[in-house]
Amino acid sequence: MDHTEKMSGAFKAAESLAEFAAEMASGQPLTLIDSKEYASDSKNELFRRTFQSEEVSSACEKIAHEFQLTLREFELLFHLSLYGFSNKELASVLVISEKTVKNHIANVQRKTNTKSTRELMSLVINRI
């Protein structure tokens, strides 16, 4: 998959994630079961493709619960883990500034006691 295809899929996925986030705004914790139920709706094929890797999703979910990450931090961690996006790409996909991406990454690293994104990715891989 080339960069253009990856970005196109990510933009579509971000739209679905935004819809999902709106439905999850009730304050309930994000769970893989909720994700699967939402994805099982035929209207949400883009969301289903976003969560095509249950292992990555599950690992990010475990980390989100263990370290009390926000939904936005979970989204960032998921996209970073699954697609390997740069800060600029994450900003574009999540429709936030690059500075906000850096702040979210710093918050995730602080909460998980990691010192780099590489160490953060190791944390995700070890949860798979």
UniProtKB/TrEMBL annotation:
<dbReference type="GO" id="GO:0006355">
    <property type="term" value="P:regulation of DNA-templated transcription"/>
</dbReference>
<keyword id="KW-0805">Transcription regulation</keyword>
<dbReference type="GO" id="GO:0003677">
    <property type="term" value="F:DNA binding"/>
</dbReference>
<dbReference type="Pfam" id="PF00196">
    <property type="entry name" value="GerE"/>
</dbReference>
<dbReference type="InterPro" id="IPR000792">
    <property type="entry name" value="Tscrpt_reg_LuxR_C"/>
</dbReference>
<keyword id="KW-0238">DNA-binding</keyword>
<dbReference type="InterPro" id="IPR036388">
    <property type="entry name" value="WH-like_DNA-bd_sf"/>
</dbReference>
<dbReference type="InterPro" id="IPR016032">
    <property type="entry name" value="Sig_transdc_resp-reg_C-effctor"/>
</dbReference>
<feature type="domain" description="HTH luxR-type">
    <location>
        <begin position="62"/>
        <end position="128"/>
    </location>
</feature>
<protein>
    <recommendedName>
        <fullName>HTH luxR-type domain-containing protein</fullName>
    </recommendedName>
</protein>
<keyword id="KW-0804">Transcription</keyword>
